[in-house]
């Protein structure tokens, strides 16, 4: 990874921590997959856009309805638990 890419990732992580009021280091708890039968949704606000079959990294289990996740493009957002499957 180049220095430029590393700084870009660090900046994205700082923005995530500010937007979601997340304290501490960002650690991946597990990986989960978006249900292939789920409808695709556009992201908006603090919600992550969903694509069928996409593998997401779980950052935090926030409540019974939502999970805080990161996708392969290093974008962060909330995802409904109802559309997530364990790998």
Nutshell version of this structure?
This protein is of the alpha+beta class and 87 residues long. The chain has one helix and five strands.
Describe this structure in words.
- This protein has a single domain (3-86), classed as SH3 type barrels, CATH 2.30.30.40.
- Strand 2 and strand 3 (66-70) form a beta hairpin.
- The chain is an alpha+beta fold and 87 residues long.
- The N and C termini lie far apart (28 Å).
- The chain is built from one helix and five strands.
- Strands 4-3-2-1-5 form a five-stranded antiparallel sheet, with no helix packed on it.
- The longest helix is centred in the first third of the chain and has 17 residues, at 3-19.
- The model has no long low-confidence stretch (mean pLDDT 89).
Q: Supply Rg.
A: 13 Å
- Count of individual domains: 1
Count of DSSP H/I helices: 1
Instruction: Specify the helix fraction band.
Output: 10-25%
Distance between the termini: 28 Å
Largest beta sheet: strand ordering: 4-3-2-1-5
CATH topology: SH3 type barrels
User: CATH architecture, please?
Assistant: Roll
Query: What is the typical, i.e. mean, pLDDT?
Result: 89
Number of β-strand runs: 5
CATH class category name: Mainly Beta
Uncertain regions spanning at least 5 consecutive residues = none
Q: Decide which structural class fits the backbone.
A: alpha+beta
Name the helix and strand elements from N-terminus to C-terminus, one letter apiece. HEEEEE
Domain Helically-extended SH3: 16-85
Protein name: PML-RARA-regulated adapter molecule 1
Keywords: Phosphoprotein
Pfam families: hSH3 (PF14603)
């Amino acid at each position: 990874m180049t220095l430029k890419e590393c700084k870009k990732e660090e900046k994205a992580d700082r923005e995530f921590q500010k937007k979601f009021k997340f304290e501490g280091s960002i650690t991946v708890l597990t990986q989960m997959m978006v249900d292939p039968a789920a409808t695709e949704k556009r992201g908006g606000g603090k919600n992550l856009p969903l694509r069928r079959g996409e593998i997401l990294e779980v950052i935090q289990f926030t409540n019974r309805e939502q999970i805080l996740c990161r996708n392969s493009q290093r974008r962060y957002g909330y995802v409904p638990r109802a559309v997530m499957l364990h790998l």
